[in-house]
Amino acid sequence: MNSGFDVVSILYRVRREMREERKREPHIYWITDLVRCPLKREYEEIYPEISLSSLFSPSAIMGDLIHIGIEEIFRRELSNAVVLTEVEGSRRLSVPEKGDVEVRGRSDVIIEIGGARFGVEIKSARSDTKIPLEHHIDQVRLYNWLFNLNLTYLVYITHERITQYPIDQRATEEEVISRIMSKTYPRYQWECKYCDYAVLCPFKKTW
Ligand code: SF4
After folding, report:
1. What pTM was computed for the model?
2. Domain with residues 20-199, CATH architecture
3. Which residue has the CA at smallest separation from atom 7 of ligand 1?
4. How far does the centroid of ligand 1 lie from the alpha carbon of residue 193, in Å?
């Protein structure tokens, strides 16, 4: 009997709502914008429909579910700690040619325990090849700067390995400004191969 209960539509609705929470605004740079090709931020504004396909990617939805599961486990198991999840932070910066901008980020988990405060960034993937990946380390260094953390654990959940890397390096304000101003397309060599905008981008690298 069809009761009208639709798990799939619930999952898609939640994912759509999560995306809508991050509406684009010209003066706001998310940390995730600073660890990917700068052109993607511009293309998202001009061609919002192209990025919609990734909204319904099963692997992305699985990643969301892994995040929710781990965050819930932390809340249950770390009763002697303060566990903050999906923590949003922001800092204002003055950037040449752009004026005042706001840098925003959302840390998966921040844990406060015994006077220490550290972050946890969760990454899920099929393979563990080359982990920890450069752009993930950059993201975590930027979170250490944004949230003033001494350390963030970069945690990988893959089909081949579940492991963690403590990252204590921290980005500087100069680096953040340089990333906002960057005109290096793509930012990382491999990006064009996986980019939704490769179908129209004149800067696509084909090597
Ligand atoms: S195709 Fe390459 S250069 Fe163009 S937007 Fe995508 S990642 Fe950037």
Report:
1. 0.92
2. Alpha-Beta Complex (3.90)
3. 192
4. 8
